[in-house]
Amino acid sequence: MLFRSFGIGRSKSAVINQKYMYTFRKEERLCSRKYLDLLFKNGSSFLLYPFRISYLFVDAPVHVQAQVVINVPKKRYKRAVDRNLLKRRIREAYRLNKQDKLYIPLPTDRGLLLFSIQFVGKDKYEFAFIEKKLIASFKRFQNLIRPNEIHQ
Predict the structure, then answer these.
(1) Beta-sheet strands, E only, within the chain
(2) Which of 72, 75, 114, 147 could make a disulfide contact with 39, Cβ separation 3.0–4.6 Å?
(3) For 97-122, what is the mean pLDDT?
(4) What is the set of domains in the chain, with CATH numbers?
(5) How far apart, in whole angstroms, are the C-alpha atoms of residue 131 and residue 128?
(6) Which pLDDT belongs to residue 20?
(7) CB distance 90 to 130 below 8 Å
(8) pLDDT of the residue at 111
C-alpha cells in the first residue's frame, strides 16, 4: 500500500496485474452442477498422495483458463473444523501457485480446464507439505497432457 498511496516505484497497471495473479475469484470456482457431473463422469484422473486430481477440457466461453473444485471428505474428517482447515490450506496453495505452475504451461487451444482436487490423505498436514504436493500434482498434470514434450 505504501507504493500505491505515494505513487512510488510501481505503475498502477503493475499493481492491478499482480493483484489478479494471486486471487481466487468466483469465476475460477467450479460450481456448475452440469460441469461437475461432466468432470466426474468423463474426466481423467490420477492419484498423487494426498490428492486425487480429476481434469477435463471442455469448450466453453469463459474468461478464465481453469475452474477448480476442492473436496475434503466428510467420511474421513467428521469435524467441519478439520475439513475447513484443510480446504483453506489447499485453496491458499492453489491460489499462490496456479499462475506459474498451472496457467502458463496450459495449452490455450484446448478450451476451459475443469479441475478437481480431492484430498484423500489421512492426516492434517501442514501448509508447506500441502503446497509441495500440489506443485508436484501440477507438474504431473503437465506431463500427462503433453506426453511427447520434454519437461524440465
Answers:
(1) 44-48, 51-58, 66-71, 112-119
(2) 114
(3) 89
(4) 25-140 (3.30.230.10)
(5) 5
(6) 54
(7) yes
(8) 87
